[in-house]
Each structure stands twice: as structure tokens, then as C-alpha cells.
Design a protein that fits this description.
Blueprint: E1 2-7, E2 20-23, E3 28-33, E4 41-48, E5 56-62, E6 72-75, E7 81-85, E8 88-89, H1 92-97, H2 101-107
Antiparallel strand pairs: 1-2, 1-5, 2-3, 3-4, 6-7, 7-8
Bound molecules: zinc ion.
The site of zinc ion has 8 residues, from α1 and α2.
Length: 110
């Protein structure tokens, strides 16, 4: 389940924009939308969302089945989140071997 959070922090500097964050159950941002407008930007490396001194409101969520662009999120053994698509996986194993356990789990053709 991916949660969609909109930042509602009141900054001292009104020029600081608040974005929309797509966050995993583990608290890592996998995508964001600048100022809550335009295209969703997928992070190559999911980043922990620092919530200290900031406020967020939940504006929705989606499951893997509803994720955009056929993306499935797999959590690796080290806690990293990988994006798995029919084309491949973002883990380092796939980069080297053109295959990995995350990808095989969904797209293996035996
Ligand atoms: Zn992988």
C-alpha cells in the first residue's frame, strides 16, 4: 500500500513549496509531485521522508494493483524498495544480470 501525503507545513518562508509525497509503509518516499501539480516524479532511490517539524495530511492511497505504469514495489532483503516493471527491476542485481528474484517473482517465463 502506498500512501499519498500532502505536506501542509506552514513555513516561515512562504516561498518554500509543499509537495505531494507517495510513501511506502516503511516511510520511504518512492515518488512525489512538485507543489502537488504536474507529473508524478519517480525516485530512482527511495528516500526516507523526514517528518520532523512538518505536517502532512493523507489524501489517499493505492495498492500495487493500482500503481501507475505497471510498477510493483518489492522490498529487498536490505530494506530497500525496488520498482519492478515488465522491463526490469531497479535493484543492482538486475542491472548486472538482467534478472533478479524480484523480477522473476512477477515476470518469470518458465
Ligand atoms: Zn530486483
Amino acid at each position: 500500500m502506498i500512501s499519498i501525503l500532502r505536506e501542509i507545513t506552514q513555513w516561515d518562508n512562504p516561498a518554500i513549496p509543499n509537495h505531494e509525497y507517495h510513501v511506502t509503509p516503511g516511510g520511504k518516499t518512492i515518488a512525489y509531485r512538485k507543489s502537488g501539480e504536474g507529473d508524478l516524479i519517480h525516485l530512482k532511490t527511495p528516500m526516507r521522508l523526514d517528518r520532523r517539524y512538518r505536517k502532512f495530511e493523507s489524501i489517499g492511497s493505492y495498492t500495487n494493483e493500482e500503481a501507475p505504469k505497471n510498477v510493483i514495489y518489492e522490498t529487498g532483503s536490505g530494506g530497500n524498495i525496488y520498482e519492478v516493471t515488465p522491463e526490469g527491476c531497479t535493484c543492482i542485481g538486475f542491472t548486472f544480470h538482467k534478472s533478479c528474484k524480484h523480477w522473476k517473482k512477477h515476470y518469470s517465463r518458465v
